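Researcher: We're teaching a course module on how sequence relates to structure. For the next exercise, students receive a sequence and then see the predicted structure as tokens, so they can try to spot secondary structure elements on their own. Here is the exercise chain.
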Amino acid sequence: MEWFNRSEADWLHLDVMDGVFVPNISFGFPVLEHVARLTDKPLDVHLMIVQPEKFISQVRDLGAAVMNVHQEACVHLHRTVQQIHEAGMKAAVTLNPATPISTLEDIIGDLDVVMLMTVNPGFGAQKFIEHSLDKVRRLREMINRTGAHALIEVDGGVNRRTAPLLAQAGVDVYVAGSALFGKEDPVAEVHELKCIIDNA
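Model: And here is the predicted structure for the students to work with:
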């Protein structure tokens, strides 16, 4: 965490996996609580789990700025978004690669963030799905057309090659994992990625 706090990273994105919604298990709330005490940067808590609405109060108690749920995991998505807002957090909704953006047409105006998975969720170091760029463009068009104010976030395969392409397509928030943690100097890599994005 020491390097992360020194870096220019704006948010800390935390993936919570349950081994049911995605085929992997990450960590639970005791670990999240410990991590939350180690940084003052906003937490973006991404719940890759079934029934994420059951954990709204726990995510709020972490001091999370953003609670991120999957459209595919929420039977009553509008209600879940309302409950996240009532808990004082920004509401983010994530779409898996095969889920069309049209599923958000009737709720886009209520969202603070829409995150597009640009790999299949559950594992790191996957290859970037190239047609995600067109999906970003279509989401940007929807946001502009409807007058919504949601930020576009992407998760998966973000690196020096894909970041400028994503920026040109209309992305606002970039989740980088392997591109940073595999580097000898991740602080410098964060800086380099931000420069690449700013100049795209």
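Model: If you want an answer key for the exercise: DSSP finds eight helices and seven strands in the chain. Residues 29 and 58 are 8 Å apart (CA to CA).
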